[in-house]
């Protein structure tokens, strides 16, 4: 059972005749033992040092873009260079993937690029702090890098057209920040130790900060950037403490060393070290929650939509926000150090998924709806991690990246075309607006996928998570699974609420407040967009023409739609029992498997196993989930169709009725105001700090610090300095005499020391 | 205490003695001693001159004096060790001194044109 | 012999280039005169490339150097940084004259243009610093030190037409001549004590003395005088008095040059002097006995360096506290940083795998050079009514009109403080670790306290440009005539952020300096040259 064949089902499976596994503990032990063998095989691969270019290329392109900014380049050169660099990086990742065979038991590869930090003060373990520029390449790394660089390239192509009204300094700034982001994300994912992970973690934070505040003239954008910055610092502090504790307990921050030690302790069943070891997962978790916008640090992500839409798609939907999931998947063994750590992750994830979905139902800003849905989907991923299916979580990250990027880019195309209009009440019937057909229909694909209807990619990934939660022995996890199903219903509702509103119905629209800027473009000749879309709205009287997307935007949308469809293939193959899930193979060949209870889920053997023992509502688990998901998905769509397509007025009537009802009137109000979380945080943290900082500190400063102690001490050096000031009298002779005198004094000191025999 | 302090106090003369004791030399030790004392005296005179004179040309000549003191020391030690390195060094020092002289006189002329005085005290604008 | 000639090909390029640049600067065509800074930078880069082309292990071995590793590291450090220092001065010399010639007010007169000479002198000074890296004997070293200094005196005098510059030049020159005399006398005494001016034989002779009853008093006194003379070049106490005045008086690009090139030369020369004193340990045989000299300096030399380091750090930092002029403040800070670097000199080369003080010093020198350009760059590239900016009033609220310069200044100051992600932090960390490893914890404590004091005044360099409100003076600050000083400032400020990513590479480059040296010391069999030298 502990043979490698457990992990790699393409080898003749030993599972069929090996009987059932009973209980998670048993399975955990197997996984751990197998993983221990596998991790022990971490090998250095200096011949892959070219993989360093995956990091270097985006960095170089960023430098190039900033130089373009300095030299006032006023064309699309920065975009082209960035696309080329990211595309080449993607090519390199692909090459690496093709060279790396997950089914071959070669274990993780480490590539040492060059020495970085080497602080050594002793021989023993723990008496050194070594962090080199080295890469740690296993299935998880490649899995992540494939979609990060791939989507990065696509979104850069999209942005080259989307940002064209900014060509010039801002264009350079934008692509420079994108380059920095890809570099940082690369070092986060590929780095071979926690220092590189932290570097990348802060790097993506910086890039995100720069890009959220891209429209720095807008106060809301600046405030959003600041909010994201502060909330992420809270998380980062947790991560930093977690890294410190990890280093303290394992004597190293190198993945290879940590995992080796972890798989040994898991195999031995003992956790050495003092109680602070149990805190490691909680601190790391805090970092993950900050970056991935989970309770209690989720409010920054919807505000981050102030950034340009391609950024929202790339950073705040597809890649950066999944860094938290990556962190937990990568350091999964560390999350077994405390028995309740994973339960906490599961509960936070499940609750966030639910809470964000409720808020999403009542938002009118298209991007905000999708932002809350991102928070909600991230919640699912954490739920998956918490219930022990790293594969489900990671696969959901993968599928989500495609359809969510698609949705964001589609709403970006709408925003681009309608002068910044995002209010779903002010655009309707997009599917009939000339030039927006592709946008409308690709958006439909995104919506279907987000709703996780059967045979879409998200169906396979999300249901893996929910099935595992549903069939878990823990009551808590089963409650979370039902909550997740309810959330799925709401997801389908709010997703199609957007689509029916924006794309369905009669064609009618008002431009957003950027109408002027876009009208001045004079691109009309290129676009050849139609007319005759006036439906009595005021803005149309001024001759507003929607700015139909061109080749780059449409092309990227189509590519993403294809990508979203293809992302479901591995799940489909598994579903049809035609073979193992590709994603599961990739994740199985990584540190995310060490001690994972539901290790075999998604692999061919795992299916048979689950089919035997997992039942939901008296049915076979898969069948039940299939039915439940179908019901939830179509139920949500049906409700949305009724209120937002067939009888739009009914939605407003219902809302008014609800608001008027004294018993539940607070609910829609609370939802519209995002459960007053921002206000709560203000009351809890901001006001006390403002009051404390503004008054108490000022008092302390005035009467204690300024008055005496600190300033007094600070004055001593200056006072000594004044003693010496007469020596610098500006006279040549004076200086010469002081120098010679100084030499004399020093000689006297030497003689004194010499006589005394020591300093 | 008894060996070191006087050696510094008496202007390194006894240092030279110690040196001539330490190294076996075919040269006459007394000649070496006398030459070294002259060298030390020259250096000290140059130093005192530099510190006390205000005329910039005089100050410059005092630094030349100190350089020449070093030259004498080099020649003496070369004689003492019976090798030519000291003498070679002196040639180069003379070159450097010539370069410094050219530079110093040029500088002094420039400064004289500005202030009509050669006193170094005229230049004390830069100070604390 | 030919090995030595090959190794100085970079310097030959610089010196020939100096002649070339002088002629170019006298040209009647304005385009050719304007090409002078570019040609200078080009020559420096050519010299930089030639360093790698001509340096081979065989030639290094044949050249009889004390520290062969210095050749590549020291020269490439000096050349790369000096290229950026030359860029800081683009548009400095002859600005008014060229404008007058351009507008036809003044006829071109080869006597009056200075740009060619200015750059030629810079090249000569740089060549001197490079020559120090492969000095096999003290004649070479002394000439190199003088070659570094003499051109800088002229450059200071001619950098501005104001009286301040001339006053700075006169102080710099006279005190420099005094210190040269002290250095030279020290070398003379060393020669007297050992009978040779060549570094390697001198080290062996001193080692022989140490093995048989201690290094002679004459040698110690000579070493002390030589070190004190060199302290002038690195502006260490008590030879630092000129620094504030000269830095304030010279034009800002020249100040930046003074804060690095002579300092680098001084430290390279100090490394040679200290290595002669058996810094890195030594073993040799005499007769049948094998003598192993414990590594470490003679006690008086250590005491001297210790006192100089403590005084330099302290006086530099508390002096800087009181300044209102940014350049003067940076002068004191330059003094203080010399003090930090001396910790590495005291620590000396370490054992097999410990942190080596000399490497830490060299790494610090590199970091300081970059910070230096990043902080002086904004001052050099901005001006107010044609005058250079130098007070804190001038840089207040700089972010509004010159955000890049404000950022560069703040990053440079942050790095000078030693704020963690920036290069300066790592440099300080290495120096402190080297000090701790050598058991000099009181020295490190003093340095740490001093770093704390320094935050006080460096913060003004961060606060004034970034946070403070613009003043009437800073409102009228405009960009200088050339883009290159700005480019140099921005690039170096960027380097301060990016270079820590390459920390390992930079440190191992610095480590290469002693690694080669250690292996030769181990590999070289105890030869009879020691014996013959000692008995001569």
User: In which order are the strands of the major sheet of chain C placed?
Assistant: 4-3-5
The coarse silhouette of chain A is globular
So how many helices of chain A?
A: 31
Residue share in helix of chain A: 55-70%
Placed side by side, the strands forming the largest sheet of chain A appear as 1-2-3
What's the short version?
The complex is a heterotrimer of chains A (759), B (128) and C (536). Chain A is mainly α.
Characterization of the model:
The complex is a heterotrimer of chains A (759), B (128) and C (536). Chain A is mostly helical and 759 residues long. Chain A folds into 4 domains: 40-338, no CATH class; 347-567 and 614-672, no CATH class; 674-722; 728-759. Chain A is 66% helix and 4% strand. Chain A has 31 helices and 7 strands. Chain A has helices at 23-39, 52-70, 77-99, 139-162, 169-190, 194-212, 219-250, 255-268, 280-291, 300-303, 309-318, 323-330, 341-360, 366-387, 390-417, 437-450, 457-470, 475-502, 515-519, 524-527, 538-541, 551-567, 569-575, 582-588, 604-613, 621-646, 648-660, 666-672, 677-705, 709-724, 732-756, and strands spanning 43-44, 109-120, 128-137, 427-428, 508-509, 615-616, 619-620. In chain A, the strands form 3 sheets. Chain A has a 3-stranded mixed sheet with strand order 1-2-3. A two-stranded antiparallel sheet of chain A has the order 4-5. In chain A, strands 6-7 form a two-stranded antiparallel sheet. In chain A, strand 6 (615-616) and strand 7 form a beta hairpin. In chain A, helix 9 runs antiparallel to helix 12 (323-330). In chain A, 53% of the residues are buried. Chain B contains 5 helices and no strands. Chain B has helices at 4-9, 13-22, 29-52, 56-81, 85-115. In chain B, helix 2 runs antiparallel to helix 3 (29-52), helix 3 (29-52) packs antiparallel against helix 4 and helix 4 (56-81) runs antiparallel to helix 5. Chain B is an all-alpha fold and 128 residues long. Chain B has a single domain (11-120), classed as Orthogonal Bundle (Helix Hairpins). Chain C has 536 residues and is mainly alpha-helical. Chain C has one domain (2-535). Chain C contains 26 helices and 5 strands. Chain C has a 3-stranded antiparallel sheet. A two-stranded antiparallel ribbon of chain C has the order 1-2. In chain C, a hairpin with a 2-residue loop joins strand 3 and strand 4. The relative contact order of chain C is 0.10. Mean pLDDT of chain C is 86; it is low at 515-536. Chains in contact: A-B, A-C, B-C. Chains A and B meet through helix 31 of A and helix 1 and helix 3 of B.
């Amino acid at each position: 059972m502990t043979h490698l064949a457990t992990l790699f089902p393409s080898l003749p499976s030993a599972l069929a005749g090996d009987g059932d596994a009973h209980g998670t503990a048993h399975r955990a032990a197997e996984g751990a033992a197998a993983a221990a063998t596998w991790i022990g095989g971490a090998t250095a691969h200096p011949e892959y040092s070219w993989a360093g270019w995956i990091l270097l290329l985006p960095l170089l392109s960023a430098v190039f873009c900033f130089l373009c900014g300095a030299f006032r380049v006023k064309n699309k050169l920065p975009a082209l260079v960035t696309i080329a660099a990211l595309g080449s990086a993607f090519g390199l990742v692909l090459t690496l993937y093709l060279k790396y065979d997950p089914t071959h038991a070669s274990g993780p590869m480490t590539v040492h690029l060059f020495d970085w930090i080497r602080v050594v003060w002793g021989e023993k373990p723990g008496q050194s702090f070594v962090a080199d520029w080295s890469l740690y390449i296993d299935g998880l790394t490649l899995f992540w890098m494939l979609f990060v660089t791939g989507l990065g390239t696509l979104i850069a192509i999209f942005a080259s057209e989307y940002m064209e009204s900014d060509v010039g300094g801002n264009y350079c700034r934008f692509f420079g920040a994108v380059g920095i982001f890809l570099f940082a994300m690369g070092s986060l994912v590929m780095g071979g130790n926690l220092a590189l992970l932290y570097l990348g973690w802060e790097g993506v934070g910086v890039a995100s900060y720069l890009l959220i505040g891209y429209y720095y003239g807008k106060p809301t954008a600046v405030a959003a950037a600041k909010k994201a910055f502060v909330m992420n610092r809270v998380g980062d502090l947790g991560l930093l403490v977690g890294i410190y504790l990890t280093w303290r307990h394992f004597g190293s921050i190198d993945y290879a060393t940590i995992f080796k030690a972890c798989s040994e302790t898991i195999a031995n069943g003992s956790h050495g070290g003092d109680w602070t070891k149990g805190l490691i997962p909680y601190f790391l978790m805090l970092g993950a929650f900050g970056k991935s916008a989970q309770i209690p640090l989720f409010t920054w992500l919807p505000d981050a939509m102030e950034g340009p839409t391609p950024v929202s798609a790339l950073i705040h939907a597809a890649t950066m926000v999944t860094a938290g999931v990556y962190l937990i998947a990568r350091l999964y063994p560390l999350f077994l150090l405390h028995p309740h750590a994973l339960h906490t992750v599961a509960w936070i994830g499940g609750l966030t998924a639910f809470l964000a979905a409720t808020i999403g139902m009542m938002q009118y800003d298209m991007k905000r709806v999708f932002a809350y849905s991102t928070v909600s989907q991230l919640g699912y991923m954490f739920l998956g991690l918490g219930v022990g299916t790293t594969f489900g979580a990671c696969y959901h990250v993968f599928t989500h990246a495609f359809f969510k990027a698609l949705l964001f880019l589609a709403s970006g195309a709408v925003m681009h075309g309608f002068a910044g209009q995002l209010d779903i009440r002010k655009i309707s019937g997009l599917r009939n607006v000339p030039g927006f057909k592709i946008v409308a229909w690709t958006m439909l694909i995104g919506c279907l996928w987000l709703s996780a209807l059967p045979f879409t990619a998200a169906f396979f990934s999300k249901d893996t998570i929910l099935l595992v939660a549903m069939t878990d022995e823990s009551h808590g996890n089963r409650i979370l699974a039902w909550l997740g199903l309810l959330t799925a219903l709401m997801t389908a509702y709010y997703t199609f609420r957007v689509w029916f509103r924006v794309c369905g119905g009669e064609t009618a629209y008002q431009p957003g407040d950027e109408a002027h800027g876009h009208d001045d473009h004079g691109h009309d000749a290129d676009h050849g967009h139609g007319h005759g879309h006036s439906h009595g709205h005021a803005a149309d009287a001024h001759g507003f023409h929607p700015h139909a997307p061109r080749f780059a935007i449409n092309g990227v949308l189509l590519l993403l739609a294809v990508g979203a469809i293809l992302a479901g293939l591995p799940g489909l193959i598994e579903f049809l029992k035609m073979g193992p899930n590709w994603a599961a193979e990739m994740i199985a060949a990584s540190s995310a498997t060490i001690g994972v209870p539901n290790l075999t889920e998604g692999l061919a053997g795992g299916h048979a196993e689950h089919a035997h023992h997992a039942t939901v509502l008296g049915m076979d688990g898969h069948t039940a989930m299939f039915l439940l998901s179908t019901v939830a998905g179509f139920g949500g769509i049906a409700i949305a169709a009724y209120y937002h397509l067939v009888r739009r007025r009914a939605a407003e009537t219902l809302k008014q009725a609800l608001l008027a009802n004294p018993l539940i009137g607070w609910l829609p109000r609370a939802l519209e105001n995002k459960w007053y979380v921002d206000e709560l945080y203000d009351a809890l943290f901001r006001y006390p700090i403002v009051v404390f900082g503004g008054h108490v500190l000022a008092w302390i400063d005035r009467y204690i610090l300024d008055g005496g102690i600190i300033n007094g001490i600070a004055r001593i050096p200056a006072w000594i300095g004044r003693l010496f000031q007469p020596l610098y009298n500006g006279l040549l002779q004076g200086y010469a005499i002081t120098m010679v005198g100084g030499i004399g004094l020093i000689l006297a000191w030497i003689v004194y020391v010499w006589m005394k025999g020591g300093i | 205490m008894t060996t070191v302090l006087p050696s510094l106090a008496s202007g390194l003369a006894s240092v030279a003695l110690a040196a001539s004791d330490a190294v076996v030399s075919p040269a006459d030790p007394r000649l070496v001693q006398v030459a070294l004392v002259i060298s030390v005296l020259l250096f000290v005179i140059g130093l005192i001159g530099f510190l006390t004179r205000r005329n910039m040309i005089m100050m410059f000549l005092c630094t030349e004096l100190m350089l020449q003191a070093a030259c004498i020391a080099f020649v003496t030690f070369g004689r003492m060790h019976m090798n030519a390195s000291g003498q070679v060094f002196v040639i180069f020092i003379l070159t450097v001194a010539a370069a410094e002289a050219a530079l110093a006189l040029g500088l002094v002329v420039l400064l004289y044109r500005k202030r009509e005085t050669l006193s170094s005290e005229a230049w004390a604008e830069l100070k604390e | 012999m030919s090995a030595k000639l090959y190794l100085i090909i970079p310097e030959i390029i610089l010196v020939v280039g100096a002649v070339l640049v002088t002629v170019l600067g006298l040209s009647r065509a304005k385009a050719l005169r304007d090409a002078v800074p570019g040609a200078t930078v080009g020559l420096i880069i050519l010299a930089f490339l030639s360093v790698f082309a001509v340096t081979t292990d065989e030639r290094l071995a044949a050249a009889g150097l004390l520290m062969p590793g210095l050749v590549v590291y020291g020269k490439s450090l000096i050349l790369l940084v000096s290229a950026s220092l030359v860029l800081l001065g683009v548009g400095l010399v002859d600005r008014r004259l060229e404008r007058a010639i351009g507008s036809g007010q003044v006829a071109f007169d080869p006597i009056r243009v200075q740009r060619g000479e200015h750059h030629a002198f810079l090249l000569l000074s740089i060549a001197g610093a490079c020559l120090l890296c492969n000095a096999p004997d003290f004649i070479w070293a002394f000439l190199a030190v003088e070659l570094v200094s003499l051109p800088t005196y002229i450059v200071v005098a001619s950098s501005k037409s104001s009286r301040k510059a001339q006053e700075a030049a006169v102080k710099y020159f006279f005190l420099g001549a005094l210190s040269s005399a002290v250095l030279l006398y020290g070398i003379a005494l060393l020669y007297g004590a050992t009978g040779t001016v060549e570094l390697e034989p001198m080290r062996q002779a001193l080692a022989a003395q140490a093995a048989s009853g201690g290094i002679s008093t004459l040698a110690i006194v000579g070493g002390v005088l030589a070190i004190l003379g060199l302290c002038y070049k690195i502006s260490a106490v008590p030879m630092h008095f000129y620094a504030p005045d000269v830095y304030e008086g010279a034009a800002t690009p020249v100040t930046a040059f003074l804060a690095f090139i002579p300092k680098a030369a001084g430290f390279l020369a100090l490394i040679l002097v200290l290595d002669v004193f058996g810094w890195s340990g030594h073993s040799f045989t005499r007769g049948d006995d094998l003598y192993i000299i414990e590594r470490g300096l003679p006690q008086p030399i250590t005491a001297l360096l210790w006192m100089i380091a403590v005084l330099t750090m302290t006086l530099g930092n508390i002096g800087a506290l009181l300044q209102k002029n940014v350049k003067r403040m940076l002068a004191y800070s330059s003094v203080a940083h010399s003090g930090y670097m001396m910790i590495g000199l005291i620590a000396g080369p370490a054992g097999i795998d410990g942190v080596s003080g000399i490497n830490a010093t060299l790494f610090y020198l590199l970091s300081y050079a970059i910070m230096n350009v990043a902080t002086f760059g904004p001052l050099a590239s901005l001006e107010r009514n044609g005058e250079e900016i130098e007070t804190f009033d001038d840089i207040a609220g700089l972010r509004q009109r010159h955000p890049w310069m404000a950022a560069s200044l703040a990053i440079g100051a942050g790095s000078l403080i030693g704020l963690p992600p920036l290069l300066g932090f790592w440099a300080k960390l290495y120096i402190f670790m080297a000090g701790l490893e050598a058991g000099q914890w009181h020295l490190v404590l003093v340095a740490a306290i001093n770093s704390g004091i320094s935050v006080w005044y460096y913060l003004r360099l961060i606060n004034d440009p970034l946070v403070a409100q613009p003043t009437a003076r800073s409102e009228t600050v405009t960009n200088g005539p050339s883009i290159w000083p700005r480019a140099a400032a921005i690039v170096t400020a960027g380097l301060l952020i990016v270079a820590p990513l390459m920390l390992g590479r930079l440190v191992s480059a610095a480590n290469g300096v002693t690694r080669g040296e250690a292996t030769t010391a181990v590999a070289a069999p105890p030869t009879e040259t020691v014996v013959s030298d000692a008995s001569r």
